[in-house]
Design brief:
This protein is an alpha+beta fold and 122 residues long. Helix content is 25%, strand content 39%. It has helices at residues 3-22, 28-33, 35-38; strands at residues 42-55, 58-64, 69-74, 84-93, 111-120. Strands 1-2-3-5-4 form a five-stranded mixed beta barrel. β2 and β3 (69-74) form a beta hairpin.
């Protein structure tokens, strides 16, 4: 390997290292800990679909990533219960009534994710 190729490989490796350092692994737990930080921002989550309710390609499903669960709203097709997915979407606060009216356990925190895209079987 000549000197130019070594230098190019080193620059490429350094660039990939910096790119990887900027990426953080998002979890439901992180979302729940700082909901205002992620409000209306697109995030990506990986997990298992534990509940799924849909009609004609629209509906909601509950995603469990091992740190917690979040409901995901979709207008782009519904994954089946038990599917492993990576989903991208915007975090929304449905209604923050937790302090006034106790939310049902199934709703959780009141945060939902509005799905923008999905990839199955990661």
């Amino acid at each position: 390997m000549n000197r130019t190729m070594r230098a190019a490989a080193l620059v490429l490796a350094a660039g990939l290292g910096l790119l990887g350092a900027g990426c953080t692994h998002m979890t439901v737990n992180k979302l729940m800990a700082q909901p205002a930080r992620y409000h209306n921002r697109e995030v990506a989550l990986k997990g298992d679909v534990i509940k799924s309710v849909g009609v004609l390609g629209h509906g909601v499903y509950q995603l469990d990533d091992g740190t917690g669960t979040i409901w995901v709203y979709s207008t782009h097709g519904m994954p089946r219960q038990g599917a492993r997915v990576k989903v991208w979407g915007r975090v929304k606060d449905v209604v923050d009534l937790g302090g006034i009216i106790p939310l049902p356990r199934e709703v959780g925190s009141g945060l939902v994710m509005d799905q923008t895209r999905i990839k199955g079987s990661y």
